[in-house]
Design brief:
- The protein has 120 residues and is an alpha/beta fold.
- The protein contains 4 helices and 4 strands.
- Helix 1 links the parallel strand 1 and strand 2.
- Helix 2 packs across helix 4.
Length: 120
């Protein structure tokens, strides 16, 4: 089983959507993949617009909550992907762990149209 860890700063939008999409498609295609997400500075609540954008695809974010990145999570991951560092460059996951960065905009405070672009 392969584990993919998606990391951003707050773990409230981008990385949560990536975790949900990966879980959904891995299950749908019968892939032996586990997805997780975390933040270098955990947020307080899931971005409701990100959750709405995922619901539009039939993917529930129910029960998801921001999580703080731990060394154990990073050590157990086969692949670590950071979601972009536009929010807080000092807290950028790529500074702390070897990652592949996707350079996504932060959905915080964005319209549903913009969050859909980020999701897609």
């Amino acid at each position: 089983m392969k584990t993919i860890l998606f990391v951003c700063v707050h773990n409230a939008g981008r990385s949560q959507m990536a975790e949900g999409l990966t879980r959904h498609f891995a299950s749908e295609m019968g892939l032996d993949i586990v997805s997780q997400s975390a933040g270098t500075q955990g947020g307080k609540v899931l971005n409701p617009v990100a959750a709405q954008a995922m619901e539009e695809l039939g993917i529930s974010m129910e029960g998801q909550a921001p999580k703080l990145l731990t060394q154990e999570m990073a050590d157990q991951a086969d692949r670590i992907i950071s979601m972009g560092c536009g929010v807080d460059a000092d807290a950028c996951p790529a500074k702390f762990i070897l990652t592949e960065d996707w350079g996504l905009d932060d959905p915080a405070g964005q319209s549903i149209e913009k969050v859909r672009e980020i999701r897609d």
